[in-house]
Design goal:
The complex is a heterodimer of chains A (637) and B (85).
Chain A: H1 7-22, H2 28-55, E1 63-73, E2 76-84, H3 86-109, H4 116-135, H5 139-157, H6 164-195, H7 200-210, H8 216-232, H9 241-244, H10 250-259, H11 264-271, H12 273-276, H13 280-303, H14 307-327, H15 331-358, H16 376-390, H17 396-411, H18 413-438, H19 445-450, H20 456-471, H21 482-492, H22 496-499, H23 510-537, H24 541-548, H25 550-557, H26 562-608, H27 616-636
Antiparallel strand pairs in A: 1-2
Helix pairs in contact in A: 1-2, 1-4, 2-3, 2-4, 3-4, 3-10, 3-15, 3-20, 4-5, 5-6, 5-10, 6-8, 8-11, 8-13, 10-15, 13-14, 13-18, 14-15, 14-17, 14-18, 15-16, 15-17, 15-20, 15-21, 16-18, 16-20, 17-18, 17-23, 18-23
Chain B: H1 2-9, H2 13-38, H3 41-72
Classes of the chains: A mainly alpha (637), B mainly alpha (85).
């Protein structure tokens, strides 16, 4: 089965090509099912590979499959090769499994879109590139996938490019990501100069001997990787593109901007854990950035009124949690949360899409209300997703978030505090997004009367994801930790001495584990109850808070003025600079030089033309004078 | 050097042309004289060369003069100034 692992890439590649060239001829039904079928085949291959890996002993589960030699110049050699190990197969299963469900959902959601086949071409292309990213066995091939998913993201955010907001959001996502990509490109160059190879296995083997712990080259390289990750995974300072990316179709938000692509930064940092553990400074930065982003995004999510944007900020916040886990070296916890988050956030987005479908595209939660009466399936699945997001005990988010908080507690109690506050806020906004649209009174009668449950093709993926959102957490039950045992060889084999003595290795006394578990459970339930009080019982409290703490609410509603600061600090000056280049440097400088040269030539010509009198006599005289002068010169010399 | 002066100050194309011919003949004369003086046959032969070229030049030159007269109905050199810058 391992030899056929490349089929995972082949199927979406075939799908992309067939749809790109024949998509408009083969009819809508075929397009939809072909795209889904390709991803399903890819998923089945991944399951087969996974089953094979499970059958092998733990130390034999890492395989490199060289497809062909990509480039060789001098000492530089890169293969197009796959690294199949415990981490990459988990990522591949998430990408293809959730990707398949979202493809199926899209058949219903996009059914009357004019560019139906183009949509599925892009979706299949995204799956191909995401698989390239997670399955690559070297940094350069991963970079190809990294750029490819960025392109797919750009194309899909701006899919409805007739809307200026969507076109702008696509450009914003692409340009902001470019800043991060530049960091990754530089990091790859540093890795090449340090190790002379880009192969993951070789790099991680050499890393502890080539780089000393805390060496400046290690710190710089990993900081550049962090920059790349903040771009792709929407962390401070580069998170601004993700909320705008909600302009794209909802399945895109679910697939790319919640479940898979945005987690690429976390995957890349976790994969490079062996390098990261050699740079304690970077680890601190990762944790700090994650904590700040988690807290900041959670507060913003509290004030948003656009259902999809609430979820977008929640994604940023949850990614912050994953960064916190990576920062303290708890890579398994990060990947575990990545997986549970993929389930429940894809579910939440698809349910939000179902709400939009029911309400003719309406997305403002202030106009909704009592929707549970009309959309039972959507309501129940959304509720499960929200419970998982909030970390209500026994739902998946509870276990993964608790694991992150547990490692934070071990390493830095301050991080735990920030995480716990964020978790409480998460519960409040998650249940706000349940109570306001689905409970209470209908606010817009006309919208409400037209609301209808989505077709089966959309609700079935919701139900499947809801089951996943409940059950995924049990893979990582504390003390049982199937998930941790599975991933352990990937992370621990790489840098044993660097991790030794660090937090995750230390084991707390068992009562403390249960205390922390109980605390995070209480936090989640308390947050949910607070949301119930605030948005169902005493609905005037939020207004009073707004009166009391007007400045704080204003600060948060304006998203801490990040967009404003970028606009004033970077975009504005850049525009002024380019305006100066266009109006002054180009027109006066470059054009001036060229025009000046032309004018000078013209002036010399106008003076010189006076020599040409047209009088033959004068020509003859000048010939004579010239001859005389020549003779005189020869004579005198 | 009366011929040279004729080329420079006269206005009539034909006079200028005749002056040019006279300059050529003057050169021929000095060739012959100096060849005789130095007892060198090259000078004598070169005279024949100049005469051939002069004959060709007359043919072309007179044709140009004819054209000027036909076009502008003048032989005054100052009326022919198409090359004026």
């Amino acid at each position: 089965m391992l030899d056929t692992a490349w089929l995972m890439l082949l199927f979406p590649a075939l799908g992309t090509l067939i749809l790109a060239f024949f998509g408009r001829r083969i009819g809508r039904r075929v397009v939809g099912w072909l795209a889904c079928g390709m991803v399903l085949l890819s998923f089945l291959t991944a399951v087969g590979v996974f089953a094979t890996l499970v059958g092998l002993p733990a130390e034999e589960r890492s395989h490199q499959i060289v497809l062909w030699s990509w480039m060789t110049t001098g000492a530089f050699h890169v293969d197009v090769a796959l690294l199949i190990d415990q981490l990459s197969i988990i990522m591949a299963l998430i990408v293809t499994g959730i990707g398949f469900l979202i493809h199926v959902y899209s058949i219903g959601y996009m059914h009357d879109d004019a560019r139906y086949s183009r949509f599925f071409t892009f979706l299949n292309f995204f799956i191909l590139m995401m698989l390239t990213l997670v399955l690559a066995n070297n940094y350069l091939l991963m970079y190809v996938g990294w750029e490819g998913v960025g392109l797919a993201s750009y194309l899909l955010i701006g899919f409805w490019f007739e809307k200026p907001a969507a076109a702008d959001a696509g450009k914003k996502a692409f340009i902001v990501n470019r800043i991060g990509d530049f960091g990754l490109a530089l990091a790859i160059m540093f890795i090449w100069t340090s190790f002379g190879t880009l192969n993951f296995v070789e790099v991680f083997e050499k890393a502890p001997t080539v780089w000393a712990v805390g060496a400046s080259v290690a710190t710089i390289t990993t900081l550049l990787m962090l920059l790349a990750a903040t771009g792709k995974s929407a962390q401070i300072p580069l998170f601004v593109w993700l909320p705008d990316a909600m302009e794209g179709p909802t399945p895109v938000s679910a697939l790319i901007h919640a479940a898979t692509m945005v987690t690429a930064g976390v995957y890349m940092l976790a994969r490079s854990g062996a390098l990261l553990s050699l740079a304690p400074t970077t680890q601190t930065w990762v944790a700090v950035i994650g904590a700040l982003t988690a807290l900041m995004a959670a507060t913003i999510a509290l004030t948003q009124t656009d259902l999809k944007r609430i979820l977008a900020y929640s994604t940023i916040s949850q990614l912050g949690f994953m960064f916190m886990a990576v920062g303290v070296g708890a890579y398994t916890a990060a990947i575990f949360h990545l997986m549970t988050h993929a389930f429940f956030k894809a579910l939440l987005f698809l349910a939000a899409g179902s709400v939009m479908h029911a309400l003719a595209g309406e997305i403002d939660i202030r106009k909704m209300g009592n929707l549970r009466a009309k959309l039972p399936t959507t309501y129940w699945t959304y509720l499960i997703g929200a419970a998982a997001l909030a970390g209500i005990p026994l739902f998946s988010g509870f276990f993964s978030k608790d694991e992150i908080l547990y490692y934070d507690w071990l390493t830095a109690p301050l991080l735990w505090l920030v995480g716990a506050i964020t978790a409480a806020l998460t519960a409040v906004y998650a249940f706000r997004s349940v109570f306001v649209p689905f409970w209470g009174q209908e606010r817009d009668k006309k919208l409400f009367s037209h609301a209808h449950e989505s077709p089966r093709i959309m609700t079935v993926p919701l139900i499947v994801l809801a089951i996943g959102a409940v059950l995924a957490g049990y893979l990582g039950l504390p003390r049982l930790s199937l998930f941790e045992t599975w991933l352990e060889p990937v992370f621990h084999a790489k840098a044993p001495e660097a991790l030794a003595g660090a937090g995750p290795e230390a084991v707390l006394s068992i009562p403390m584990v249960w205390v922390l578990l109980a605390v995070s459970g209480l936090i989640a339930i308390g947050g949910a109850y607070a949301a119930y009080r605030l948005y169902i019982v005493n609905t005037d409290v939020p207004a009073r808070v707004r009166e009391r703490l007007g400045w704080l609410v204003k600060l948060i509603e304006n998203k801490y003025y990040f967009d404003w600061a970028y606009d004033k600090g970077i975009v504005g000056p850049l525009r002024q600079l380019s305006a100066w280049f266009a109006d002054v440097a180009d027109k006066r400088g470059i054009d001036g030089a060229v025009n000046g040269l032309a004018a000078a030539t013209g002036w010399v010509g106008s003076q010189a033309r006076r020599l040409q009198t047209g009088m033959v006599g004068i020509y003859a005289l000048s010939i004579l004078l010239g001859a005389v002068a020549l003779l005189a010169w020869f004579a005198i010399r | 050097m009366p011929e040279r002066t004729g080329v420079l100050i006269r206005r009539n194309v034909l006079i200028i042309f005749m002056s040019v011919e006279m300059m050529l003949n003057a050169v021929n004369l000095s060739f012959v004289a100096l060849a005789y003086h130095f007892m060198d046959l090259n000078g004598q032969i070169f005279v024949l060369m100049v005469m051939v070229v002069a004959a060709a030049e007359v043919a072309v030159g007179l044709a140009i003069v004819m054209t000027i007269v036909r076009r502008k109905d003048t032989t005054n050199i100052e009326d022919v100034n198409l090359l004026k810058g």
